[in-house]
Amino acid sequence: MGNKPAHKVLVVDDEEPIQELLKYNLEKDGYEVKTAGDGARAVEIAKKFHPDLVLLDIMMPKMDGVETCRLLREIPELQKTFIVFLTARSEEYSEVAAFDVGADDYITKPIKPRALVSRIGALFRREVKKTSPLSSISVGDLTIDRTSYTIKVDGREINLPKKEFELLYFLAKNPNKVFSREDLLQNIWGSDVYVLARTVDVHIRKVREKIGEDYITTVKGVGYKFSLN
Fold it and tell me: Tens digit of pLDDT for each residue in 183-223?
């Protein structure tokens, strides 16, 4: 990684051999890694460690991965953090629940450690490419600040989870243009992440709950657009 600071990764899994295997491979690739064996401990560590990425199992003692993800997304300093579920649970409802609470990716075990490290590297590279010179957008009483990953509605500051923010920002910088769910999946989640189309609807609903119903319009049978009144 040259002279750049190492990305920080928090590995959360109740199986110690998996923790150690992932830690070894990530550190070998230059990442700074901490581990946790349950969700409660993960939240405690994350508040001080401020990881750039969290690898999170679902089935864990004390607190499951979905609840852990929800709590991590409530920490303001982790708004830009990637949260990737790495789990043996392959049921659709588990995947939907993970994305509902703000996951960036959902990977089912088993997976080869080097393939996982490569996939993590791709996530960080995509984030760099998405950097835009347009750092702030203001429409009516809504201001979207990409630098701080915050929005203001009528002067009131709101922190959005990473994917909700990216979705709102993408629509707002392309006003009055209609995007299908597939377009939004491609632009926000990318082609290397398998996400259900329903996930877009869930994220749109959550954004509307926080900023109001006036900005994002549903175009029946087509998709969504950011409306300029």
Answer: 998 888 876 666 677 888 988 998 999 999 889 999 988 99
Q: Is residue 178 part of a domain?
A: yes
CB 162 within 8 A of CB 79: yes
pLDDT tens column, 19-48: 999 999 999 999 999 999 999 999 999 999
20's tokens: 């150690």
CATH number at residue 183: 1.10.10.10
Assess whether 145 and 44 both reside in one domain: no
**DSSP category for residue 15:** -
CA separation, residue 181 to residues 46, 83, 138, 192, 229 (Å)? 32, 22, 24, 16, 23
Max distance between CA atoms of the chain, in angstroms, equals 56
Q: How many other β-carbons are positioned within 10 Å of the β-carbon of residue 15? A: 12
> Which of residues 98, 129, 160 is at a domain's end?
129
- Count of the separate structural domains present in the chain: 2
Give the integer Cα–Cα distance in Å for 33 and 115: 17
Q: Exposure pattern of 180-212 as b/e (b: 16+ CB <10 Å)?
A: ebebbbeebbeeebebeeebbebbbebbeeebe
Query: Does residue 161 sit in the same domain as residue 119?
Result: no
State both tokens at 80. Answer: 């830009």
- CA distance to 129, 152, 177, per residue, from 219 (Å): 29, 25, 10
Question: Domain range for residue 118?
Answer: 8-129
The predicted model scores a pTM of 0.70
